[in-house]
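1st attempt posting a full record on here, be nice pls
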Amino acid sequence: TPLYSSAASDVYKRQGDIYAVANGQSNKSVNDFSDHTMCRLGQWYSSEQSAEFKHTNAFKQLENPHSEVHKNGVAALHSIQNGDKESAIKHIHKMEAASERVMHLLDEIC
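the predicted structure (as tokens):
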């Protein structure tokens, strides 16, 4: 579905952007990364377009891991800025796990 395609693309792009900043391959700053309510998935989640899915268990579970993707990506970048590589890696792993959960839930919804 179009939602799944665009959401999946956004999730993977965000991860790629986090990796690029973490590896010094991007000049983006922490402030360039929106919170989970501002990306396309977050906007869809709170819009009328998602009304037909709001009753589903998967939809009800989506917001928390989606928020965790965003929070842990930003936390990883903060850790890198502070020179704490171990913490950055921990947050990147949490971001990846949350991303997998988001994708699984989107599979159920769509």
